[in-house]
Amino acid sequence: QVQLVESGGGLVQAGGSLRLSCAASGSIFGISGMGWYRQAPGKQRDLVATITSGGTNYADSVKGRFTISRDNAKNTVFLQMNSLKPEDTAVYYCVATEALVGLDYWGQGTQVTVSS
């Protein structure tokens, strides 16, 4: 089992920045990738960004504004969010993937609210 704990959400004005963190613990040796998804009220959960040994991937809506990074020594993944827009408002979820066994582990989510 893998446990994920997110932090860093909050309220920010449009144009501002936030940095989300996700610390992984437990049986992390099998994790092949980590990422962030978000879910706005009444909408489906959508991919924001992922990071694997092969590189990073971003949703078109956040390219150039968000940056995902990983500190392997601390088993932590970060999401730096700049130039935030009201449409970025959502609950942000961290995910860790064990590709070999087809398992995804999810964090509890952290709220990000961007005011106009």
Features:
116 residues, mainly beta, seven-stranded mixed β-sheet, four-stranded antiparallel β-sheet, 0% helix
Describe the structure.
This protein has 116 residues and is mainly β. 0% of the residues lie in helices and 59% in strands. It is built from no helices and eleven strands. It has strands spanning 2-7, 10-13, 18-26, 33-39, 45-52, 55-58, 66-71, 76-81, 90-98, 103-106, 110-115. The strands form two sheets. Strands 2, 4, 5, 6, 9, 10 and 11 form a seven-stranded mixed β-sheet that branches. Strand 7 and strand 8 (76-81) form a beta hairpin. The radius of gyration is 14 Å and the shape is globular.
SSE order and pairing:
Blueprint (H helix, E strand, L loop, with lengths): L1 E6 L2 E4 L4 E9 L6 E7 L5 E8 L2 E4 L7 E6 L4 E6 L8 E9 L4 E4 L3 E6 L1
Parallel strand pairs: 2-11
Antiparallel strand pairs: 1-3, 3-8, 4-5, 4-9, 5-6, 7-8, 9-10, 9-11
Structural class: mainly beta
List unreliable stretches of 5+ residues: none
Whole-number mean pLDDT: 95
Measured between the Cα atoms of the first and last residue, the distance is 40 Å
The main pleated sheet reads as: 7 strands, mixed
Beta strand count:
11
Beta percentage is over 45%
Helix content: under 10%
Overall spatial form: globular
Cα Rg: 14 Å
Number of helices: 0
Order of helices and strands: EEEEEEEEEEE
In short:
This protein is mainly β and 116 residues long.
